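Narrative of accomplishments. A recurring question from our advisory board has been how the design workflow behaves on a single, concrete structure rather than in aggregate. To address it, we present the structure tokens for one chain from the evaluation set, followed by the sequence designed for it. No filtering or post-editing was applied between the two.
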């Protein structure tokens, strides 16, 4: 018998499902009999509990279980027979009237929309590029040197200077009262590395061990501590110790500490360049992918299934709560999170997902095995044991699904850039990396 599909809205549909009542009853009884073999009840031996007691205790839950399974199976068969692509779970409601000996249900659901993608040849996309220069390599090597630096106490009488590590006691007061987090003893920081507010950093420069100083400090209006943001405090600082930093020379001994196979400065620079180029490729791809996705949204037309947007909204809110919990926020599970904050992004994600899926299907842009392997090899090169990293990804289906998604996105990006009107823009290394 053909399935009758009612159109309620652009994407909303409804079909009526009928199930033989005797089949439901028979399956419920069969499951209760199986339960009776193992169920335990006070006053009865195992396997000897009367069916009336089993039915009274478990009948409702078994009935619910059977109904869910049978209605789900019937819906799947009806949707398949009607050739429907169902988006999200259906809403099932029992009908008061049904043919004799039957149980009837209305299943209301949404279907996937038709996705119309415009002429990609008319789309304008900005594609950026950048190169790793010697200055970037020099800065990276300086970071590596700082990671392996040592500190030695300055001679008495020398003032604290840029790059020195100072150990201090301090106390800050607002309106004569010490505020939370405004007092510490034996606190260490390196001058000039942004660990402290610039005013604080500047006040400590030039001070000598054993010296104390009182100075005013204006907290920025956007300071992360809301209790003191925008307020002026008076700080008293005592310098206990000043240590000058010593950076290792860039020589073979230094290169050996980095685990580079060939302990030469040339090999170090080559290794740094390779790592920076790998990171740069990722940044370029991310920037160009974002431009392509914006262009695809602008040239595509489709209706959004509310069920898919709702599911994405729930995922985003759950992720936000998990992030709050990780940050130590109290009552993160019940903290008010207005859905309006997440709705635009949820809609964008669903829209992009549907458009990309259509583009992939229409143009065979699925990830190929050799692309997956190449991507794994590329990612693993920044680790000490690349082969182990590759095995770690291959051993988990979800991790490989994430890799596949990244490869598909790159395929889509390359495909659109090959069709669109592209404006190429060369950026400086720092401009791209710091964006």
């Amino acid at each position: 018998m053909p399935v009758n599909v009612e159109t309620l809205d652009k994407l909303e549909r409804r079909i009526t499902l009928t199930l033989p009542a005797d089949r439901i009853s028979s399956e419920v009884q069969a499951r209760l009999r199986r339960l009776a073999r193992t169920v335990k009840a006070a006053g009865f031996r195992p396997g000897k509990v009367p069916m009336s007691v089993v039915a009274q205790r478990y009948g409702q839950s078994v009935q619910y279980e059977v109904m869910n399974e049978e209605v789900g199976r019937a819906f799947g068969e009806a949707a398949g027979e009607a050739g429907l692509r169902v988006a999200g779970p259906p809403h099932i409601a029992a009908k008061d009237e049904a043919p004799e000996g039957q149980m009837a249900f209305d299943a209301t659901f949404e279907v996937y929309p038709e996705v119309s993608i415009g002429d990609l040849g008319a789309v304008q996309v900005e594609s950026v590029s950048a190169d790793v220069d010697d200055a970037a390599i020099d800065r990276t090597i300086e970071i590596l040197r700082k990671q392996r630096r040592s500190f030695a106490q300055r001679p008495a009488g020398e003032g604290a200077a840029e790059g020195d590590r100072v150990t201090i006691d301090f106390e800050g007061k607002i309106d004569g009262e010490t505020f939370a987090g405004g007092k510490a003893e034996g606190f260490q920081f390196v001058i000039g590395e942004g660990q402290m507010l610039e005013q604080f950093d500047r006040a400590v420069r030039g001070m000598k061990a054993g010296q104390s100083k009182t100075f005013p400090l204006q907290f920025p209006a956007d300071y992360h501590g809301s209790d003191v943001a925008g307020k002026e405090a008076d700080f008293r600082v005592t310098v206990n110790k000043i240590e000058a930093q010593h950076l290792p020379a860039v020589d073979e001994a230094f290169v050996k500490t980095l685990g580079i196979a060939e302990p030469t400065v040339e090999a170090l620079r080559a290794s740094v360049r390779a790592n920076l180029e790998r990171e740069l490729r990722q940044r370029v791809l991310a920037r160009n992918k974002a431009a392509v996705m914006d262009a695809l949204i602008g040239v595509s037309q489709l209706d959004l299934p509310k069920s898919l947007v709702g599911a994405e909204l729930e995922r985003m809110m759950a992720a936000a709560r998990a992030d709050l919990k990780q940050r130590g926020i109290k009552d993160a599970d019940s903290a008010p999170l207005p859905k309006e904050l997440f709705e635009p992004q949820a809609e964008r994600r669903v829209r992009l997902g549907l458009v990309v899926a259509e583009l992939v299907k229409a143009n065979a842009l699925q990830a190929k095995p050799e692309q997956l392997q190449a991507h794994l090899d590329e990612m693993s090169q920044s680790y000490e044991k690349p082969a182990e990293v590759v095995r770690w990804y291959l051993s988990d289906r979800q991790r490989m699904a994430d890799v596949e998604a990244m490869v598909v996105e790159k395929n889509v990006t390359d495909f659109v850039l090959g069709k669109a009107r592209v404006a190429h823009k060369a950026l400086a290394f720092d401009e791209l990396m710091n964006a």
